[in-house]
Amino acid sequence: MPVTETAATINGVSIDDSFAEAFPMSGTAIQITAINEKWALEAATKMTGFATSVIACGCEGGIERVLSPAETRDGRPGVRVLFFGFDAGGLEKQVTTRLGQCILTCPTTACYGDYESDQTIDLGSAIRYFADGFQISKKFAGKHFWRMPVMEGEFLCEAKTGMTGDGVGGGNLLIMARHVEGALKASEAAVEAMKTVPDVIMPFPGGIVRSGSKVGGKYKGMMASTNDAYCPTLKGVTDTALTEEIGSVLEIVIDGLTPDAVAKAMAAGIKAITDLGPETGALRIGAGNYGGNLGPHHFHLKDLLP
Amino acid sequence: MTGLVFRLKGEPEERLDLSPLIPERLDGLTSSEIQKLGIGTTKRDLKLGDVFDVSGADVSDIRFEGGSARLDKIGLGLSKGSIRVEGDVGFRCGRAMRGGAITVTGSAGDLAGSAMEGGELVIQGSAGARLGGPEAGETKGMSGGAIRVQGSAGERAADRMRRGTIVIDGDCGLDAASRMIAGTLIVGGKAKGTPGRLMKRGTLILAGGAERLAPTFLDCGPQDLIILRLMARAIGEELGAVPFDGSPMRRYGGDTAVLGMGEVFLPLR
């Protein structure tokens, strides 16, 4: 592993002269409302479960933010959720399956599209047949909804939501620290800062992944395997990217509806990490890439400095 | 460029066919060509200049200064732009319109918004019979767009309605939404006769109650539905305040004499 140059050092945190290599994805957003925030979050949490990596989960999803009643379509508390897939077909299949199992089933919820686009994927239009002929289509004020009688009352779901083929998956930061406590603290600070940026999610647990991967592996059929260059326990036996003082590395993966949103989230994360400083946080920030030949989106850290 | 203005010289001596006066048909005509348009309905071959003073030039912003119940077919087939009438209009105002907006500050005759497919029709006075309904022989009435009547409406509003939204702030005449195929009719006052008779699908929100319902409508009890809240909010934003607020209402399913997939909402009281 070649030595990575340092682009800058800010508040004692060094930032690699490197870039995050990201890929085009199909993305969408929906709004889930419920009688209170608890049930909106319950539905959104279930719906975005097992949606960390598109390779194994079929999609990447997460809660973008909690919405106040003033921000939602029906004036109830709500949550905005984003999903990303390899293509529109795969994305629609994942979203509608999760909608049917996690939102339709959850008490008091309603579901609306939350992304405007000429390209759409089905929501209620895909699951309306559950109502067994009792479904009711309503079109008003330029919108189309499906009403489905359920035992609790009635499930209301917008027919479709907009989608974009210009989403971005795989924006990332590598947060390197002396020990796991520092890496976690810096990563948590970065995730909190990124959550303030619209149109992005960090799909891994708490927004953070400890098992960053490289493409392929020594075993047949492995699409990805541990990123040994950044494993601190292998510093002496592999072609490491880590220096002596690095004892733990965490990664934040960012998916966004636009490249600009991903860049803003990465910049917010870098600022939060450098504001925290190296004593209690991270010593160094890097980014994962594949040499620049696989993904068309390159987010250079030096362009995102605070 | 100022809007095109037709100032009525006096009460017309015959019914007028004003269907040529929409942006699509006026575009490219000179003022003198416009004044020579035939709008009469008798052997007299009445020209527009005989009845109206014409000023302005922007055909996408048409205004009639002065109205009459003899001004028929205003906005017939309109697809873009706006028409405003200061006063009453006659039959078929906004019939088959596909887009754009029509505002009538007075009242409208029969068949206003008949078979309209899109756009917005606002009648600040009252409307005649068969608001949004089909012409004789047509199989469906309104199939899109929105109508607001701030006064009352005549009999059989929303007859054979297929899609779209009609809001009537006042009362509506006998048998509103008869043979409704789908769509939404909201009435603030009393719905006379038997509203919804033979409706297949669609929604009637009768905030002022109904004179009676046909026995083929079945009581589903009080319902607190998100769709009512959403409609109150979304239609209110589109057309102005609506006469219901999304509170629970009593739902009746019907008309079971036909498909039975329609619904009538009545106040709980």
UniProtKB/TrEMBL annotation, chain A:
Stretches assigned to the Formylmethanofuran: tetrahydromethanopterin formyltransferase Ftr C-terminal domain: 153-304
Main location: cytoplasm
GO molecular function, one term: formylmethanofuran-tetrahydromethanopterin N-formyltransferase activity
EC number: 2.3.1.101
GO (cellular component) term, any one: cytoplasm
GO biological process, any: formaldehyde catabolic process
Keywords carried by this UniProt record: Acyltransferase, Cytoplasm, One-carbon metabolism, Transferase
Gene3D superfamilies (alphabetical): 3.30.70.520
Pathway entry: One-carbon metabolism; formaldehyde degradation; formate from formaldehyde (H(4)MPT route): step 4/5
Major enzyme class: transferase
Function: Catalyzes the transfer of a formyl group from 5-formyl tetrahydromethanopterin (5-formyl-H(4)MPT) to methanofuran (MFR) to produce formylmethanofuran (formyl-MFR) and tetrahydromethanopterin (H(4)MPT).
Assigned protein family: Belongs to the FTR family.
The protein, known as: Formylmethanofuran--tetrahydromethanopterin formyltransferase
Origin species: Fulvimarina manganoxydans
UniProtKB/TrEMBL annotation, chain B:
Name listed for the protein in its UniProt record: Formylmethanofuran dehydrogenase, subunit C
Superkingdom of the source species: Bacteria
Residues covered by the Glutamate synthase alpha subunit C-terminal domain: 77-191
Cross-referenced Gene3D superfamilies: Glutamate synthase, alpha subunit, C-terminal domain
Gene Ontology molecular-function annotations: formylmethanofuran dehydrogenase activity; transition metal ion binding
Any one GO BP annotation for this protein: methanogenesis
